[in-house]
Amino acid sequence: MSSQSKRKAVTLTTLMAMKARGEKITALTAYDALFAELISTAGVDVILVGDSLGMVLQGHDSTLPVTMADMVYHMNNVRRGNNGALIMADLPFMSYASEQQSLQSAAELMRAGAHIVKLEGGAWLAESTRMLVERGIPVCAHMGLTPQSINRIGGYRVQGRDPSQAKEMIDEAKVLQDAGAAILLLECVPVDLTNAISQALEVPVIGIGGGPGADGQIMVMHDMLGITPSSIRVPKFVKNFLPESKNGIAGAFEAYVEAVKGGVFPGPEHSFT
Ligand code: KIV
Asked: pTM score, two decimals?
């Protein structure tokens, strides 16, 4: 990467300022150095080294088989290609079952270059969140549809449609914010619930399948390039940005940034009421 194209690093302070001024945050997954370079150079604010790699790279039918060794390997690759984006890394299934284990797993990912770690779950993660944050490890909470709990949830479906479940989700999001979570990732919830949570929290809420009201948007890179593996059903909230690109894959990333920042994506056709 030439020094000319070096971007100023995105930090948590940058994201807080973006929320304050109403600028949408853009995020995409990446799992290797080349795509990390293309995505960050296109101006995407946050790269997620997601455990979705188990499905889009490894061919599994869920994220459950992904290990810490997998995450560290991909994290190192993304770090080498990154051009200034904030790098978030998933703690994989069963790597944060206890507070002590959360610390060890998160420390491994931070040593590999992560700037923040993401944990799936609600208020039960408050103590782990507090412990990590107190020790210098920023935390993104992931609520709504949490794919690591797919066997309990019973399918990849919209969460929080029931008013009591929606209220519980708002309360638990506040608990995690109070415990120190710096970002909330909200997956597959109705637009009204996304709006309520984004307004209730001071920290940025990044949505996927939550409608346009979140403070930012994230997508799995393979989905927005139209190359979702055939074994995975393409969710309603996905848009393929490649056809409208004037510059191949790099142009699709730029089109995604423009659409999210311009409030054009996601539209009603990508959202749940
Ligand atoms: O692992 C992942 O890619 C994710 C996204 C669904 C946001 O958590």
From this structure: 0.97
